[in-house]
Amino acid sequence: MKSPLVPTLSLPGIRFIGVVDCEKLQPGLREASLAGLIVAAHTAVEEVPFVNATVEAVGECSRGAPVETATLKFRTSKFLRIEIQLGFVVTDITGQSWLIGAAEPPFPKVSLTRKTGLPGGDPAVWEIEVKAVGQRALLPCVF
Q: What is the pTM (predicted TM-score) of this model?
C-alpha cells in the first residue's frame, strides 16, 4: 500500500526572526490557528540578528491524528536566554509572519551550540535549532 503524501512547508527565505516569552502570549493560539484564523502575538518581540536561517514544517498522521513538526535553524551572535520558554516569530520574504510556540505546552525545544570562528577572522556564533511539535506548530501570525 502506498503511504500518503506528507505535507511539507518550507518558507521561501527569512528576513526577520524575533523571540517572545511564551508565558506572555495569550492562550488558545493553536486552536485559533486550527480554526483557520491568523493569530496575533500581542507581546514584545525582540529582534535577533541572524544568518543562514531556514524554516520547515512537516505534517504527518500519528495515531489517527494530524501532527506537525516545525523546525527553525539559524546562526546568531546573540545569546538567547533559555531559562524561559521561548517562542519565535519568523517573517519570510513575502511578508508573511509565522509564530512557533504558544502559551500552553508543548513548548518549542531550543538547542544552542557554540561555534568558534576560524583563525582567519570569522566570528564565533551560536547555532540555534528550534523544534516544535503539535497539531499545529507553525502558526500564521501578525505582530
A: 0.88
The number of distinct structural domains making up the chain is 1
Say if 83 falls within a structural domain.
yes
What is the Rg, in whole angstroms, of the alpha carbon atoms belonging to the chain?
Answer: 16
Say yes or no to pLDDT of 116 above 60: yes
State which residues form the domain around 99: 8-142
| Among the ranges given (42-51, 63-72, 75-84, 116-125), the one the predictor scored with the smallest mean pLDDT | 116-125
pLDDT tens for each residue of 46-74: 999 999 999 999 999 888 888 999 999 99
